[in-house]
Amino acid sequence: MADQKIQTLKLNTSFLSILVEIIKVSRPIHWVKNLSVFAALIFSRNLFVEFYWERVILAFISFSFAASATYIFNDIADAPHDRLHPTKRFRPIAARRLPILAAVATMGAFALLSLYIATNLSTLFLLSISAYLCLQALYSLGLKNLPIIDILIIAAGFVLRVYGGAFVVDAHLSVWFLLCIISVALFLASGKRRAEISSIPEGKTRVSLTKYGQELLNSYVTMFANAAWMSWALFTFFESPTPETRVWLFLAEISRTTTVSKLLMATIPIAIFGIMRYEALIFENRSETPEKLFLTDKALVGSVILWLGMVVWILYGGVTNFS
């Protein structure tokens, strides 16, 4: 009887340890990137429509499962290189704490759950999830070793998230907003590479990093940072959504050049500050994991919250009830 209890305890301990490693390899902290699916909900002025909230939350869950599946697939494919990386060598698969069979089973379950949820939302959203999974699989299988292509694929993941959110609420995204999303995505991706190349000895990890020069990545970061804030400025000027309430009408009297439809331009200085802060973190070699920065850096978190709060206040001032 005692032996059976000991055996049961060992099995339970083993199961719990594997479960912990599965949670780690799934990288739930990275799900913060999937919050970008809410962009279309906000800018389509449907933020307080309960029906759309439910759909976007499901889209967020679907992308989170898909992202975790691709992280596991990438860790399996990249385990030999990760063992040479100063921090990635501690990942569950690279450190051999998670059996490959368990990792493959988890990856398959996450991918199927993601596709099942997507199937019940819309055909276009299903296509965006499928495109995301395919792109990330190709990335893990070799495209990550191609300079420039690797950055473009990372950026494409952000664009697919935003458009996935638009598909589930049947929203139109303007060309200027799309340009802004692409610019921000490229800025984050090039910043990630810039931090990696500065913190890893040459030749110790993926091939593409050995083909980038630090000055080249510096120019990418600067170029996309400028494109990001300028495209946001152009969006707020040319295609800024018009607030639906009269709470802002008094501001139009401040100046003959001020109109309600241009009030989002007030967020431009905050956007510039946020981009400047993130660029400073890039050159401090702290942007290899942007999802952590957006949760831990006080100045960056503050600028994002203030920017988002102003956007919602300008577009929805006075609206508090679900439809």
UniProtKB/TrEMBL annotation:
Location(s), subcellular: Membrane
Pfam families to which the protein is assigned, alphabetical: UbiA
Gene Ontology annotations for the cellular component aspect, listed alphabetically: membrane
GO MF terms held by the record: transferase activity, transferring alkyl or aryl (other than methyl) groups
Residues that span the membrane, as ranges: 55-77, 98-118, 148-169, 175-195, 216-238, 258-278, 299-319
Membrane topology: Multi-pass membrane protein
Keyword set, alphabetical order: Membrane, Transmembrane, Transmembrane helix
Keyword check for Ion transport: no
Signal peptide positions on this chain: none
Primary localization: membrane
Protein name: Phosphoribose diphosphate--decaprenyl-phosphate phosphoribosyltransferase
Native organism: Candidatus Woesebacteria bacterium RIFCSPLOWO2_01_FULL_39_25
